[in-house]
Amino acid sequence: MTFDADTDAQHLDQALAAVRAHSDLEPELALVLGSGLGELADDVEDATVISTADVPHYPTSTVQGHAGRLVLGTLSGKPVLVIQGRVHFYEGHSARSLGFPVRLAKALGAKGLVLTNAAGGINPDFGPGTLMLITDHINLAFANPLAGPVGRGEGRFPDMSNPYDEEWREQARNIALTNRISYREGVYVWTGGPSYETPAEIRYFAHVGADAVGMSTVPEAIQAAALGLPVLGISTITNPAAGLGSEPLDHGDVLEVGRAVRSRLAAWVRGIVAEGAP
Ligand code: HPA
Question: I need a labelling partner for 50 at 20 to 30 A (CA). Which of 19, 92, 200, 207 fits?
Protein backbone atom coordinates (compact mmCIF):
# COMPACT_ATOMS: atom_id res chain seq x y z
CA MET A 1 0.00 0.00 0.00
CA THR A 2 1.33 3.40 -0.84
CA PHE A 3 1.10 6.65 1.11
CA ASP A 4 0.39 10.25 0.28
CA ALA A 5 3.49 12.43 0.84
CA ASP A 6 1.62 15.54 2.06
CA THR A 7 -0.54 13.60 4.51
CA ASP A 8 2.54 11.70 5.66
CA ALA A 9 4.34 15.01 6.39
CA GLN A 10 1.27 16.43 8.18
CA HIS A 11 1.01 13.33 10.35
CA LEU A 12 4.62 13.73 11.36
CA ASP A 13 4.08 17.42 12.21
CA GLN A 14 1.10 16.50 14.40
CA ALA A 15 3.11 13.81 16.18
CA LEU A 16 6.00 16.23 16.69
CA ALA A 17 3.65 18.85 18.15
CA ALA A 18 2.21 16.27 20.57
CA VAL A 19 5.69 15.37 21.83
CA ARG A 20 6.67 19.03 22.04
CA ALA A 21 3.64 19.67 24.25
CA HIS A 22 5.40 17.49 26.85
CA SER A 23 9.08 18.22 26.31
CA ASP A 24 11.37 20.63 24.46
CA LEU A 25 14.38 18.35 24.82
CA GLU A 26 16.40 17.98 21.63
CA PRO A 27 17.88 14.48 21.72
CA GLU A 28 21.40 13.99 20.41
CA LEU A 29 20.72 10.29 20.03
CA ALA A 30 17.63 8.16 19.64
CA LEU A 31 17.63 4.57 20.86
CA VAL A 32 15.21 1.84 19.84
CA LEU A 33 15.16 -0.98 22.35
CA GLY A 34 14.37 -4.54 21.34
CA SER A 35 12.60 -7.48 23.01
CA GLY A 36 13.47 -7.80 26.70
CA LEU A 37 15.90 -4.87 26.45
CA GLY A 38 13.51 -2.03 27.16
CA GLU A 39 14.57 -1.49 30.75
CA LEU A 40 17.51 0.70 29.81
CA ALA A 41 14.85 3.38 29.63
CA ASP A 42 14.61 3.20 33.44
CA ASP A 43 18.14 4.66 33.64
CA VAL A 44 17.14 7.84 31.84
CA GLU A 45 17.32 10.83 34.20
CA ASP A 46 14.88 13.73 34.32
CA ALA A 47 12.69 11.62 32.11
CA THR A 48 9.56 12.78 30.39
CA VAL A 49 7.57 9.66 29.53
CA ILE A 50 5.00 9.85 26.78
CA SER A 51 2.70 6.99 25.88
CA THR A 52 2.80 6.37 22.15
CA ALA A 53 -0.99 6.13 22.36
CA ASP A 54 -0.94 9.91 23.03
CA VAL A 55 1.13 10.61 19.93
CA PRO A 56 -1.13 11.00 16.91
CA HIS A 57 -0.44 8.58 14.05
CA TYR A 58 2.16 6.61 16.05
CA PRO A 59 1.64 2.98 15.03
CA THR A 60 0.30 0.83 17.86
CA SER A 61 2.73 -1.64 19.43
CA THR A 62 1.09 -4.89 20.51
CA VAL A 63 3.98 -7.24 21.38
CA GLN A 64 4.68 -8.49 24.87
CA GLY A 65 8.05 -7.00 25.90
CA HIS A 66 7.50 -3.83 23.86
CA ALA A 67 5.94 -1.07 25.95
CA GLY A 68 4.63 1.76 23.79
CA ARG A 69 6.49 4.65 25.39
CA LEU A 70 8.79 7.47 24.38
CA VAL A 71 11.25 8.53 27.05
CA LEU A 72 13.01 11.87 26.69
CA GLY A 73 15.76 12.73 29.16
CA THR A 74 19.44 12.35 29.94
CA LEU A 75 21.54 9.18 29.69
CA SER A 76 25.31 9.21 30.27
CA GLY A 77 25.09 13.00 30.36
CA LYS A 78 23.57 13.25 26.86
CA PRO A 79 20.05 14.23 25.81
CA VAL A 80 18.35 11.14 24.43
CA LEU A 81 15.08 9.84 23.10
CA VAL A 82 14.48 6.22 24.09
CA ILE A 83 11.88 4.60 21.90
CA GLN A 84 10.28 1.82 23.89
CA GLY A 85 7.68 1.16 21.32
CA ARG A 86 9.12 -0.54 18.32
CA VAL A 87 6.61 -1.56 15.69
CA HIS A 88 6.98 -4.64 13.56
CA PHE A 89 5.84 -5.74 10.15
CA TYR A 90 4.16 -8.84 11.61
CA GLU A 91 1.77 -6.68 13.63
CA GLY A 92 0.15 -5.74 10.36
CA HIS A 93 1.65 -2.28 9.98
CA SER A 94 2.45 -0.96 6.53
CA ALA A 95 6.13 -0.85 5.62
CA ARG A 96 5.83 2.96 5.71
CA SER A 97 4.66 2.91 9.36
CA LEU A 98 7.77 1.01 10.42
CA GLY A 99 9.83 4.11 9.67
CA PHE A 100 7.53 6.44 11.64
CA PRO A 101 9.46 6.33 14.96
CA VAL A 102 12.68 7.09 13.06
CA ARG A 103 11.13 10.01 11.20
CA LEU A 104 9.87 11.34 14.54
CA ALA A 105 13.34 10.95 16.11
CA LYS A 106 14.87 12.89 13.24
CA ALA A 107 12.21 15.60 13.50
CA LEU A 108 12.98 15.93 17.23
CA GLY A 109 16.62 16.64 16.35
CA ALA A 110 18.39 13.28 16.75
CA LYS A 111 21.85 13.12 15.15
CA GLY A 112 22.25 9.36 15.45
CA LEU A 113 20.13 6.25 15.93
CA VAL A 114 21.06 3.24 18.07
CA LEU A 115 19.04 0.13 17.21
CA THR A 116 19.04 -2.94 19.45
CA ASN A 117 17.21 -6.18 18.86
CA ALA A 118 16.87 -9.80 19.90
CA ALA A 119 17.96 -12.22 17.20
CA GLY A 120 18.44 -15.88 16.44
CA GLY A 121 22.04 -17.00 15.97
CA ILE A 122 22.82 -18.46 12.54
CA ASN A 123 26.60 -18.35 12.86
CA PRO A 124 27.33 -21.46 14.95
CA ASP A 125 29.81 -19.45 17.06
CA PHE A 126 27.08 -17.03 18.15
CA GLY A 127 25.31 -18.72 21.07
CA PRO A 128 22.60 -17.25 23.31
CA GLY A 129 23.94 -14.24 25.19
CA THR A 130 26.29 -13.13 22.38
CA LEU A 131 26.20 -9.43 21.61
CA MET A 132 26.61 -8.85 17.88
CA LEU A 133 27.64 -5.50 16.46
CA ILE A 134 25.72 -5.33 13.18
CA THR A 135 28.07 -4.70 10.24
CA ASP A 136 25.47 -4.94 7.48
CA HIS A 137 22.03 -6.35 6.75
CA ILE A 138 20.05 -8.36 4.23
CA ASN A 139 16.41 -7.48 3.63
CA LEU A 140 14.57 -10.77 3.13
CA ALA A 141 11.20 -9.35 4.14
CA PHE A 142 11.17 -7.57 0.77
CA ALA A 143 9.32 -4.65 2.32
CA ASN A 144 10.67 -1.10 2.34
CA PRO A 145 9.47 1.94 4.34
CA LEU A 146 10.41 4.19 1.41
CA ALA A 147 8.17 2.51 -1.15
CA GLY A 148 5.68 5.06 -2.45
CA PRO A 149 6.10 8.79 -3.07
CA VAL A 150 9.32 10.44 -1.84
CA GLY A 151 8.75 11.42 1.79
CA ARG A 152 9.76 14.82 3.15
CA GLY A 153 13.52 15.08 3.57
CA GLU A 154 14.11 11.71 1.95
CA GLY A 155 16.06 10.89 -1.17
CA ARG A 156 14.51 8.72 -3.88
CA PHE A 157 17.35 6.19 -4.07
CA PRO A 158 19.26 6.33 -0.79
CA ASP A 159 22.76 4.90 -0.80
CA MET A 160 22.98 1.82 1.42
CA SER A 161 26.73 1.16 1.26
CA ASN A 162 27.28 2.18 4.91
CA PRO A 163 24.00 1.27 6.65
CA TYR A 164 25.65 0.80 10.05
CA ASP A 165 28.02 3.75 10.27
CA GLU A 166 31.62 2.62 9.96
CA GLU A 167 33.13 5.40 12.07
CA TRP A 168 30.53 4.84 14.79
CA ARG A 169 31.21 1.09 14.78
CA GLU A 170 34.89 1.86 15.37
CA GLN A 171 33.91 4.00 18.38
CA ALA A 172 31.70 1.16 19.66
CA ARG A 173 34.58 -1.34 19.33
CA ASN A 174 36.86 0.90 21.37
CA ILE A 175 34.22 1.35 24.06
CA ALA A 176 33.71 -2.42 24.27
CA LEU A 177 37.47 -2.93 24.56
CA THR A 178 37.86 -0.30 27.29
CA ASN A 179 34.95 -1.75 29.27
CA ARG A 180 35.92 -5.39 28.65
CA ILE A 181 32.61 -6.12 26.97
CA SER A 182 32.85 -9.16 24.71
CA TYR A 183 31.02 -9.02 21.41
CA ARG A 184 31.08 -10.41 17.88
CA GLU A 185 30.33 -8.76 14.57
CA GLY A 186 28.05 -9.93 11.82
CA VAL A 187 25.33 -9.54 9.25
CA TYR A 188 21.68 -9.37 10.30
CA VAL A 189 18.91 -10.68 8.09
CA TRP A 190 15.35 -9.34 8.36
CA THR A 191 12.38 -11.64 7.93
CA GLY A 192 8.83 -10.39 8.23
CA GLY A 193 7.63 -12.95 10.76
CA PRO A 194 5.68 -13.61 12.90
CA SER A 195 6.35 -17.31 12.41
CA TYR A 196 9.93 -18.24 13.15
CA GLU A 197 12.01 -19.56 10.28
CA THR A 198 12.20 -23.13 9.08
CA PRO A 199 15.50 -25.03 9.27
CA ALA A 200 15.73 -24.89 5.46
CA GLU A 201 15.31 -21.10 5.51
CA ILE A 202 18.08 -20.82 8.10
CA ARG A 203 20.42 -22.94 5.94
CA TYR A 204 19.61 -20.62 3.06
CA PHE A 205 20.31 -17.49 5.16
CA ALA A 206 23.65 -18.99 6.25
CA HIS A 207 24.57 -19.57 2.60
CA VAL A 208 23.86 -15.96 1.65
CA GLY A 209 26.08 -14.63 4.44
CA ALA A 210 23.79 -13.94 7.42
CA ASP A 211 25.02 -14.39 11.00
CA ALA A 212 21.79 -13.57 12.82
CA VAL A 213 18.09 -13.38 12.01
CA GLY A 214 15.33 -11.19 13.37
CA MET A 215 12.08 -9.39 12.67
CA SER A 216 13.08 -5.73 13.09
CA THR A 217 15.84 -3.13 12.69
CA VAL A 218 16.24 -3.23 8.89
CA PRO A 219 13.26 -0.99 8.06
CA GLU A 220 14.46 1.49 10.70
CA ALA A 221 18.01 1.44 9.27
CA ILE A 222 16.64 2.03 5.76
CA GLN A 223 14.48 4.92 6.98
CA ALA A 224 17.48 6.43 8.78
CA ALA A 225 19.65 6.13 5.66
CA ALA A 226 17.03 8.02 3.66
CA LEU A 227 17.16 10.84 6.22
CA GLY A 228 20.97 10.90 6.49
CA LEU A 229 20.84 9.71 10.09
CA PRO A 230 23.81 7.50 11.11
CA VAL A 231 22.89 4.13 12.62
CA LEU A 232 24.56 1.79 15.07
CA GLY A 233 23.01 -1.66 15.53
CA ILE A 234 23.52 -4.30 18.21
CA SER A 235 21.81 -7.69 18.28
CA THR A 236 21.48 -9.82 21.38
CA ILE A 237 21.53 -13.44 20.28
CA THR A 238 18.77 -15.07 22.32
CA ASN A 239 18.56 -18.53 20.72
CA PRO A 240 20.15 -20.73 18.10
CA ALA A 241 18.15 -20.18 14.89
CA ALA A 242 15.69 -22.90 13.81
CA GLY A 243 17.27 -26.28 13.23
CA LEU A 244 20.50 -25.36 15.01
CA GLY A 245 19.37 -25.97 18.59
CA SER A 246 17.56 -28.79 20.32
CA GLU A 247 14.51 -26.81 21.51
CA PRO A 248 11.55 -25.35 19.61
CA LEU A 249 11.73 -21.54 19.48
CA ASP A 250 9.77 -19.68 22.12
CA HIS A 251 9.26 -15.93 22.66
CA GLY A 252 9.51 -16.44 26.44
CA ASP A 253 13.09 -17.68 26.01
CA VAL A 254 13.86 -14.70 23.81
CA LEU A 255 12.70 -12.32 26.54
CA GLU A 256 14.59 -14.22 29.25
CA VAL A 257 17.97 -14.19 27.49
CA GLY A 258 17.42 -10.54 26.60
CA ARG A 259 17.05 -9.82 30.31
CA ALA A 260 20.07 -11.91 31.29
CA VAL A 261 22.50 -9.99 29.07
CA ARG A 262 20.90 -6.62 29.54
CA SER A 263 23.49 -5.33 32.04
CA ARG A 264 26.30 -6.03 29.54
CA LEU A 265 24.35 -4.47 26.74
CA ALA A 266 23.33 -1.56 28.95
CA ALA A 267 26.97 -0.89 29.90
CA TRP A 268 27.93 -0.86 26.24
CA VAL A 269 25.05 1.37 25.20
CA ARG A 270 25.73 3.78 28.08
CA GLY A 271 29.36 4.05 26.90
CA ILE A 272 28.23 4.60 23.32
CA VAL A 273 25.77 7.30 24.37
CA ALA A 274 28.45 9.07 26.47
CA GLU A 275 30.54 9.52 23.28
CA GLY A 276 27.57 11.00 21.45
CA ALA A 277 26.75 10.98 17.76
CA PRO A 278 29.63 10.05 15.41
N1 HPA B 1 14.21 -15.69 14.46
C2 HPA B 1 13.63 -14.50 14.21
N3 HPA B 1 13.55 -13.54 15.12
C4 HPA B 1 14.09 -13.75 16.33
C5 HPA B 1 14.70 -14.97 16.65
C6 HPA B 1 14.77 -16.00 15.67
O7 HPA B 1 15.31 -17.10 15.88
N8 HPA B 1 15.12 -14.85 17.95
C9 HPA B 1 14.78 -13.60 18.36
N10 HPA B 1 14.15 -12.95 17.40
Answer: 92
